[in-house]
Batch of 2 targets.
Target 1
Amino acid sequence: MNFPNCNILSTDQFACADIAQLFTAAAVVKPYAKREQQTNVLQGAILSNLFFEPSTRTRLSFCWAFILLGGAVIVSSLISTTSIVKGESLCDFAKVVAEYCDIAVIRHPDAGSAAKYAECSNVPVINAGDGANEHPTQALLDIYTMEQELAKYDKTIDGVTLACIGDLKYGRTVHSLLKLLALFEDVTIHLISPMSLQLPKQFTEKLSERGHRLEYFNRLEPGIENVDVLYVTRIQEERLSEVDQNNLQLASFQINRTIYEQVCTPETVILHPLPRNSRSDTPELHTDLNDHPNLAIFRQVANGLTVRMALFALIMDVVEQISHTTY
């Protein structure tokens, strides 16, 4: 991939070399993400941060990543505050926004919307989640986190056994992650979900083509036994009918300390793209694991800032200039 001025719309765009290049850039920006050093390498540049679905981590980390590189951010968080509600097309909207910025990040409820937006934009576009389709930057930070966490136990992603748990039908983070995992070697994936929320076949094609192993489970315990990584996901209630929600039997898919310690190995890493559901009587990832050293969910959050800073630096073609703009 040629990163400068490139759109980031899908994990389909990435090869292993691109991931390596991104993670090399992440090492460069990490001291700035941790605020150990400061740079103004993007001084004068403007990001349009367009979030038309609810978001905390992704929205704030994209904003903060651009600011930490010295840039400025303009924000639009509701479709209802734009002229789209007056009938303006997404294409016209993209052309207008491009007049006010150097790069745009968009989250939109419709699958394929980021690609449609990018077709009409005169500046680079990053997909921050398009409906139930993809969330490429989340997958990149998940791979980054997975590498770091597995390294603590002298493991790599090559040869990993990963359990994906929860809403695999509508969970766009899983969709993007599995496409990236297909690039590695000798991966085993356990897909654990209610029958009605199983992974769509189009997201397993690359894995199957590459000879990776896929195993399906509709019970939790057999699926998480002896795995290296748990990737727990929230049920996407906003994309389900009330009837569907009532039929899911969510309690049988909950990860809590008792189940973890009884079934998983002492080295099993716990990931979750967040948010986790704290309103339910049966949260998918229980808070009784909050102090467990293998719970990496908040390290994922911190890594998201680093990876998104690196992505901005590559797209804006300023990685080599960062050290010269430190103050």
Note: The two ends are 31 Å apart (CA to CA).
Target 2
Amino acid sequence: MNKITYICVALSVALFSCNKKETLDPQSVIHDDTDTPTALDTYIRNEYINPYNIEVNYKYVDVNYEMGRYLYPPTESKVQPFLEMIKDVWLGAYQQVAGTTFVSQVAPRQISLIGGRNLDPQRNPETYLFEETLGQADNGAKITIARVDYYDPAHPDEANIRHIIHTIQHEYCHIINQHKPFAPEFGKITPDDYSSSWHGKTTAQANALGFITNYAAANPFEDFAEMTSHMLMKSKAQWDAALNAMPEKGKVALKKKEAFIVEYFRAEWGIDFYQLQRVAYQRMQNYL
């Protein structure tokens, strides 16, 4: 009975309090900036949405990112210089070699940007390190790219620029493969050395087994994307020199994988991969 009495008294006080008339401020405390495009929004519409139908998300929206990670959106002033660079090196190279139609049809529908590093909140139990996700391609529709705030065109950091370009070339290769999968014969070139414990290998050990990086040893899909992205980061002469310096077994396997990739792009897409390699490398040099 006491509990009911207390509730009734509290309810009476609440109703009495609510009966007071107040003058409400006509200015809403909720600010909606969606109706007023910024200069950056206009740039994105003109350079990404209209020609390629690619939406760019640079504001934090939960649904666009992995939950449980310490992520933050890029600094707004960093976004356009970053987008200008990747558009020139990545989209520009494919457009020059494969044509605008290819890029429009095989482009991701969304690019989501992260300001800092995308670190796993849990340490890897084998290495005791926080593993970093450099980029991610989702179902052929979206590419997520981290480290946007690390890009500074006024003070170019060559290692970071290479890091960014390699990441987007790698993730875009996944999207290309999702549109037209490569034949399973690629995975049969080094079938016995793929492992979920790829991070336990050094780069030299991976090279000796026929993988361009230790991550390439994770599975054939990552192997194909790592091969493709690394080839696009070097001139043909630099690539040949790198392979020729590797142990014989690894060199033979990597040359087979190279030939497979070149033929895939020719047969499935009508793309001269060595021309694409030359153009992508030349465009990248402008930012180093």
Note: Residues 1-20 have pLDDT under 50 and may be disordered.
